[in-house]
Specification:
Immunoglobulin-like, 213 residues, alpha+beta, four-stranded antiparallel beta sheet, 30% strand, globular
Length: 213
């Protein structure tokens, strides 16, 4: 019985020693697990489209301007010209020593009022109308001694002139109120008041050709 108690006591002492040793040792620290670095995704904003859409072809110059103004060097159009007679009233014909015997003489001047250079060639054609707008017949005769036909280039404000002669006493007469002037190569007239008295001699109106003035 004593041997049995001795065995139990020895076992108890051994267990106590084991516990003491166990308590004296520090528990190993848990190994830290290294986390992988966080991945940051940066999203670039999409490029903004320009408010003005680019075209592959440059804008072409409008042809409207060219059509409305005409090419430089082509025939002058009626709307590009201004006309006036010198003198333009009958009283200036009286006592003028430059007036031919038995005739009246005036000079028609047409001027380029456009912004381009244009040309006139030959002679302007004219028609007379009465106070009621009726057409008054007149025989137009070209003066062979006048300037020869030539093409005249008119820059802006440049002019060309044309002589007119008529009788005011003998033969049948007309008393025009207006004169329609048709520049060469035009079917639209420039209309002016006619203040130079009666046109007689058939009636007949003698004219020259346009010359630079």
């Amino acid at each position: 019985m004593l041997r049995t108690r001795g065995k139990r006591l020895a076992a108890l002492l051994a267990a106590t020693a084991a516990v003491t040793v166990s308590c004296g040792q520090q528990a190993p620290q848990a190994q830290q697990v290294q986390q992988p670095p966080a991945t940051v995704t940066v999203t670039q904003p999409a490029p903004q489209e320009s408010g003005t859409e680019e075209t592959s072809e440059p804008a072409s110059e409008s042809s409207t301007t060219a059509d409305s103004r005409g090419e430089s060097g082509t025939a002058c159009r009626t709307e590009e010209l201004r006309a006036r007679f010198y003198p333009d009233v009958a009283i200036d014909l009286i006592g003028d020593p430059s007036q031919p015997e038995g005739q009246s003489h005036t000079v028609l001047r047409i001027a380029n009022i456009s912004g381009r250079t244009c040309t006139v060639t030959g002679a302007a054609r004219v028609e007379f109308t009465g106070v009621n707008g009726e057409e008054l017949p007149v025989d137009l005769v070209e003066n062979p001694a006048g300037p020869s036909a030539s093409t005249i280039s008119l820059g802006t404000r440049d002019g060309a002139a044309q002589d007119f002669f008529w009788k005011y006493k003998t033969g049948d007469c007309i008393d025009p109120a207006k004169i329609s002037i048709y520049p060469p190569e035009n079917s639209d007239p420039i209309v002016l008041d006619w203040n130079l008295g009666v046109v007689c001699g058939g009636p007949q109106l003698e004219h020259g050709r346009l010359f630079a003035n």
